[in-house]
Give the backbone structure.
Amino acid sequence: MQIPYAEWNAAIPVRRSRRSYDSSEIVPQLLSRMQTVCQDFRPFPEVRIELITESIDAVLTGITNSYGIIRGASACLVFIGDMNDPHVQEKVGYTGEGIILEATANGLNTCWVSGSFDRKAASSIIGIAKNEKVLTVSPIGHSPQEPSLTEKSMMSLFRPHKRRPLSALASGLEESQRPAWMKAELDAARLAPSAMNRQPWRFELDRNSITVSVDTPKLSLSIDKRLHCGIAMMHIEVAALNCEVEGKWQLLESPQVARFTVKDE
């Protein structure tokens, strides 16, 4: 499946993490569309995304080692990876964010969830192989236009960090030297979701490449930071394609994650 970059790029600035849903069912045509995209968008054979519509409450159990009570979702995305792959975290983040952007482009709400779900319940529902693990999930459905009181109180209680400026995230090429496509990629990457909005990625810029690294090797609220970097990787590639610039990813060893190199103009 080719990335529908125009639709996904438009979804990047409007995507918001939502934890309250109105319990309305997703129309069959849209549900079928999401199931098809989950099946067809598999850039890495070690990663798969499953959409479930049953026993949602059993999976989204509330607070367990992280913040965010999820209520009323009519479906759930389950992100699974082969743990024998040393790059499984970034591959799950990259692939999963593609599905998240597809949902957003179709008017659905989502939220990356790491600790506040029942991994055993999710694994039982979808069935996983010996080496597979459910790394994270996302409710999917329709949220009220205004955040619920619960959402507002959780945001106030945990006070997510404000997004850092690009000057704190990117190094290498000075801003005046960056081509338009690189500026678009960085702007999109800066909008990538991360736990508590900590933005645990860093970008090293060269004339025709962006290298994504983690800020430190420590976990961020029980989530591997390489998974967050995978989310940012998807934003980078979508923005590049939207600028009619093609490139390739090279996966790297820690603390680096991956390098996106564009073709010479």
Observations:
- The first strand starts at residue 47 and ends at 52.
